[in-house]
């Protein structure tokens, strides 16, 4: 679901949500050595932090994870597309959603995590 443009956002009231700076290389390594468990945590964090910074709102991190499991991964395609739209909104790029979806369809979704975390890291700095 998309947020209405005329609604007040936390950023409009001078509030800046907390975004944690994460080392992308370490996040990938932790995801591999924990057999994906850290990747699930990262998924939840990316969802919550991009929701907080973007005008586009999707299900919260835990809900998105549950939806992905319940739909046997189908929801993840929507999640990747919306992650791209949200990071594009944060940076002012309108084509990120399609790029993220294409990467996801090509089984390269982990690159989306890296791209999104890079955007969040620039925002956190």
Characterize this entry briefly.
By secondary structure, the chain is mostly helical. It is 65% helix and 0% strand.
Describe the structure.
There is one protein chain. The protein is mainly α. The protein has one domain (23-124). The protein is built from 6 helices and no strands. Helix 2 (37-53) crosses helix 6. It starts with 23 loop residues before the first helix and ends with a helix. The model is unreliable at 1-10 (pLDDT under 50).
Topology:
Layout: H1 24-33, H2 37-53, H3 61-70, H4 74-91, H5 96-105, H6 109-124
Strand content: under 5%
Individual helix count: 6
Number of DSSP-assigned strands: 0
Shape: globular
Rg, please? 14 Å
Order of helices and strands: HHHHHH
Largest sheet: none
Structural class: mainly alpha
Instruction: Count up the domains.
Output: 1
Report the mean per-residue pLDDT as an integer.
88
| First-last Cα distance | 29 Å
Percent range of helical residues: 55-70%
**Oligomeric nature of the chains:** single chain
Features:
125 residues, mainly alpha, 6 helices, 65% helix, 0% strand, globular, disordered N terminus
């Amino acid at each position: 679901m998309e947020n209405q443009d005329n609604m007040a956002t936390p950023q409009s009231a001078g509030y800046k949500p907390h975004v944690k700076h994460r080392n992308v290389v370490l996040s990938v390594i932790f995801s591999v050595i924990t057999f994906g468990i850290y990747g699930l945590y990262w998924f939840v964090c990316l969802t919550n932090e991009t929701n907080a910074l973007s005008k586009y709102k999707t299900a919260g991190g835990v809900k998105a994870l549950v939806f992905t499991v319940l739909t046997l991964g189908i929801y993840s395609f929507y999640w990747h597309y919306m992650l791209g739209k949200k990071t594009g909104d944060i940076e002012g790029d309108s084509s990120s959603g399609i790029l993220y979806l294409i990467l996801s369809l090509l089984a390269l979704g982990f690159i989306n995590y890296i791209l999104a975390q890079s955007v969040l890291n620039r925002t956190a700095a």
